[in-house]
Amino acid sequence: MYPGLVHAHSGLRWIALVLLLAAVVTAISRWQGRNSYTDGNRKLYLFTLISVHTQLLLGLALLFISPKVDFGQMSDKFYRFYSVEHTVGMLIAIVLITIGYSRSKRATNDTTKHRLVGIFYGIGLLLILASIPWPFRIPGAGWF
What we know:
Blueprint: H1 2-33, H2 39-65, H3 77-106, H4 110-131
Helix pairs in contact: 1-2, 1-4, 2-3, 3-4
């Protein structure tokens, strides 16, 4: 079960990253162009939200069964990354993305909706990129 969850969590990150990048680019371009908030934009933002929440659920499952998570070995950089840095960074990013989506739904102005999504999703994307265990950053981490 553990290898399947790891592969799903690692492989689905690419879908979440592509959707996040597309949502941020769309939101910023429509915000700057003062374009209307269409049903297609709403679906892109919603699917992005769903993809990061799916990653959250897979990550929470891995948090409890992964041998890489060991709160007793905080002095080791490897364990500290997976136990604290990765977990906290991703949680903050997902909270920001959720706040951005929720606040954009309540906004009345189309430009404000795009601005909120662009800012909150953009900050979330940066946090996610900083918290991913890239192979060049963490020894033993893979691309998939």
